[in-house]
From TrEMBL:
The active site is at residue 736. SUPFAM superfamilies: DNA breaking-rejoining enzymes, Eukaryotic DNA topoisomerase I, N-terminal DNA-binding fragment. Releases the supercoiling and torsional tension of DNA introduced during the DNA replication and transcription by transiently cleaving and rejoining one strand of the DNA duplex. Introduces a single-strand break via transesterification at the specific target site 5'-[CT]CCTTp site in duplex DNA. The scissile phosphodiester is attacked by the catalytic tyrosine of the enzyme, resulting in the formation of a DNA-(3'-phosphotyrosyl)-enzyme intermediate and the expulsion of a 5'-OH DNA strand. The free DNA strand then undergoes passage around the unbroken strand thus removing DNA supercoils. It catalyses: ATP-independent breakage of single-stranded DNA, followed by passage and rejoining. Its EC number is 5.6.2.1. It is an enzyme of class 5 (isomerase). This is DNA topoisomerase I. SMART domains: TOPEUc.
DNA sequence: CGCGGGACTTAGTAGTGTGAGT
DNA sequence: ACTCACACTACTAAGTCCCGCG
């Protein structure tokens, strides 16, 4: 399969599944009498039972439950016996220093310096010294943390100095003519309430504002705020009587105004903003300058929860300095809070990596101000993450062997553990922790419920559920026979829709089990591992040939396999359908033009048709209807273009204070197009295009060639659009694919790294760019 | 063990800045 | 030169996982 071919989900699944399947001899999977027994215990229920009112779903108490079904011919040892014996393959590396192949770096620096000069032995010493010196010099500029010894996990920093955070500007009341109307009456809202109304007004045309939950939550909080600040002239009771349209129009006009500002004005505004933000953008970490990530306190607004979030639309309250906790060195200068305010708290906790923190009022959780992605702290933890994932490859075989065996364990809990591990490993599911009633109903592996999977014998499973961010996970896959059997057992009555499939295990239990194989191994590591492993495998399939653009396309195709594996989606943009339509229309038109040109050649030299039948084979591929349709479209477009051109020319003349073109010019032009339409109509009848006197066979052939390359390009573009329309490559590139793979690809395939990483990603992954070479492997 | 608090990574999208195509 | 779609960045929501407590 060429890597740019579309790959379906199940193909990806197969691709991924093969190693594990290979490692278990079929003989190990004994046949099961239940396979053929009634499937009647699989109701096709897809409707979800109302959530248990207690909030928490039931989880069986007796973890010791033994599977008493027909499966008990299994002679496997219960896990209990195994549990005490952690896998011997504990990592030696875990204690060693975290260093990114320092040697290879310096070596490379060397060879770079040496090779061009072809000097050998003696100079290599000098070169090394020079390299070291250069490195040290650079260190003034950029701290090469990945060449340092690891400062053992516990402590995150030695010293930390920063300038605090930026607060959003205070609310500025709307001009007095912009009001909320209630039941036709002007409402005079106190500023605080007006602000909240404005939040809604600004969103009036969004999907959120049309969502009843959003409306209710907003309205409830809006009324609360009105009450808090002493009410207003009109008693507001009914959301539907509120008219926010004046506010909306005002915000729109303000937006237009802003857009209409001249280039210089915009620049000036931006310069001023930058100047104000300058001090907050960086901080001093262990004496070195580092970027801060989100130094701005989140502004108040309406909470935009994703999916069916019960709290969506609630008011996200303004955060004041009193709500903010700062974290910095004991001896650091404490930034001045905004005038008239005090900081909530000042801490000196070097076991954490945040600069400031506050509590938000929606879920009552914390928000943090942290270092930027390109900081040494983030880089180091990113590096560690990938190293952990990379280590997994030394254990994965054993893990797979074990869980395949444990799929038949007689202990229900163990079977669930094994089955869950299988799903996490093969289908890249997330762990899936419990969620409360106050959150959107989304699931991961351990929180999968009865209604989320459908079983189709002999071994097909259909997953259909909402995962993180309420993104739908829909896959029809084939699983190991034993997995299928187990899933059926997990669905057996009395289980019914609404019940957990994995009712005896939790993510912490899984993770605890994983630690037995390898320090730091948790459920999410499987995603990182499998993503990077897939990428490595895909890159291995790419031939080192073609143009840079072609290679980038192949790289993206590989990237896409990973994104599909991880189910990274994006919503198709509103215009997508029409865009695709337009491109395919354009494509058809080009084909028509090509065929038309070929017909012309025959007109010029009818003998050619016999001489090269293949070349002319396609000339009648388009139906009359198609052709007519295309004619219409072409004429339509030309007319439109004529109108536009006329308008533009006149506008220009107007500006130059010259005489405008008379309507007759436009008319004349349109008439010419009508003539063309006539010609086309004739052509349609005769099937013989009119050939210009100046045309020759050679000229036409050249034109055809041009069009053909355009057709190829456009076809490609269209395909890429369609393939990519719902897949988001960015997330996997940023979080799952070891950046050293990308760097390796860049070097090995001679593709500039700029084509693969954006500026931000290059900064974030600088450690990888500096440390991986063309034969680095995950 | 189970739970809640806390800190961190992962995720899609809104809103821009910008460069390819005309 | 001008648009207009696209690519990137900023933003912040939504996960995971760890820890300490009862």
């Amino acid at each position: 399969m060429s890597s740019d071919d579309e790959m379906t989900l199940s193909e990806v699944g197969k691709l991924r599944r093969s190693p594990s399947v290979d490692s278990i001899p079929l003989s190990q999977m004994d046949s099961d009498p239940t396979t053929t027994s009634a499937d009647s215990d699989m109701p096709k229920v897809s409707k979800r039972k109302a959530k248990n009112s207690e909030g928490k779903r039931k989880r069986a108490k007796k973890a010791t439950a033994v599977i008493k079904d027909e499966d008990n011919e299994d002679e496997d040892v219960p896990l209990a016996q195994r549990e005490g014996s952690p896998k011997k393959s504990t990592t030696k590396k875990s204690t060693s220093k975290v260093k990114v192949e320092k040697e290879s770096v310096s070596k490379k620096t060397n060879s770079k310096k040496v090779t061009p000069k072809k000097e050998e032995k003696e100079s290599s010493v000098d070169a090394e010294a020079a390299a070291v010196a250069a490195a040290e010099e650079e260190e003034e500029e950029k701290y090469r943390w990945w060449e340092q010894e690891d400062v053992d996990g516990e402590q995150k920093w030695e010293s930390l100095h920063h300038n605090g955070v930026i607060f959003p500007p205070e609310y500025e009341p709307l001009p007095s003519h912009v009001k909320l109307y209630y039941d036709g009456k002007v409402v005079n809202l106190p500023p605080q309430a007006e602000e909240v109304a404005g939040f809604f007004g600004a969103m009036l045309e969004t999907d959120h504002a049309k969502n009843p939950t959003f409306q209710n939550n907003f309205f409830e909080d809006f009324l609360q705020v009105i009450k808090e600040c002493g009410g207003c002239n009109v008693e507001i009771k009914d959301f539907n009587k509120c008219d926010f349209s004046k506010m909306y129009t005002y915000f729109e006009s303000e937006r237009e105004k802003k857009k209409a500002l001249s280039r210089d004005e915009k620049k000036a505004i931006k310069a001023e903003k930058d100047k104000l933000e300058e001090p907050y953008k960086t901080c001093l970490l262990n004496g070195r300058k580092e970027q801060v990530g989100n130094f701005r306190i989140e502004p108040p607004g309406l909470f935009r929860g994703r999916g069916a979030h019960p709290k969506t639309g609630k008011l996200k309250r303004r955060v004041y300095p009193e709500d903010v906790t700062l974290n910095l060195s004991k001896d650091a200068n404490i930034p001045e809070p905004p005038a008239g305010h005090k900081w909530g708290e000042v801490r000196h906790d070097n076991a954490v990596a945040w600069l400031a923190m506050w509590k938000e009022n929606i879920a009552d959780s914390f928000k943090y101000v942290r270092f930027a992605a390109n900081s040494s702290i983030k880089g180091l933890s990113d590096f560690k993450k990938f190293e952990t994932a990379r280590q997994l490859k030394d254990h994965i075989e054993e893990i797979r062997k074990d869980y395949n065996k444990m799929l038949k364990d007689e202990l229900m809990q163990n079977r669930q553990m094994a089955t869950a591990t299988y799903l996490i490993d093969i289908f890249a599911l997330r762990a899936g922790g419990e969620k409360g009633d106050e959150e959107a109903d989304t699931v991961g592996c351990c929180s999968l419920r009865y209604e989320h999977i459908t079983l189709k014998p002999p071994n097909k499973v259909i997953f259909d559920f909402l995962g993180k961010d309420s993104i739908r996970f829909y896959q029809e896959v084939e699983v190991e026979k034993q997995v299928f059997k187990n899933l059926r057992i997990f669905k057996k009555p009395p289980k019914q829709p609404g019940d957990d499939l994995f009712d005896r295990i939790t993510p912490p239990m899984l993770n605890k089990q994983f630690q037995n194989y390898m320090k730091g191994l948790t459920a999410k590591v499987f995603r990182t591992y499998n993503a990077s492993k897939t990428m490595q495998d895909q890159i291995d399939l790419i031939p080192n040939e073609g143009t840079v653009a072609e290679k980038v396309v192949k790289f993206n195709a590989a990237n896409r396999t990973v994104a599909i594996l991880c189910n990274h989606q994006r919503t198709v943009s509103k215009g997508h359908g029409s865009v695709v339509q337009r491109i395919s229309d354009k494509l058809k038109e080009m084909v028509w033009q090509k065929l038309r040109l070929k017909k012309m050649i025959i007109e010029l030299d009818p003998k050619l048709k016999k001489k090269d039948p293949k070349y002319f084979e396609e000339i009648n591929d388009l139906t009359k209807e198609d052709e007519e349709h295309i004619h219409k479209a072409v004429i339509e477009r030309q007319k439109e273009a004529a109108h536009k051109r006329f308008q533009r020319e006149n506008e220009k003349l107007k500006v130059e204070d010259q005489e405008l073109l008379p309507e007759s010019v436009l008319k004349e032009r349109l008439e010419k197009i009508d003539e063309l339409a006539q010609e086309y109509a004739e052509e349609l009848k005769s099937n013989k295009p009119i050939v210009k006197k100046t045309d020759t066979v050679e000229k036409l052939k050249a034109q055809i060639e041009k069009i053909e390359t355009r057709i190829v390009n456009t076809t490609f573009q269209l395909k890429d659009k369609e393939d990519n329309s719902e897949v988001s490559l960015g997330t996997s590139k940023m979080n799952y694919i070891d950046p050293r793979l990308t760097v390796m690809f860049s070097k090995k395939f001679d593709v500039p790294i700029e084509k693969l990483f954006t500026k931000t990603l290059r900064e974030k992954f600088n450690w990888a760019i500096e440390s991986a070479d063309d034969n680095w492997r995950f």
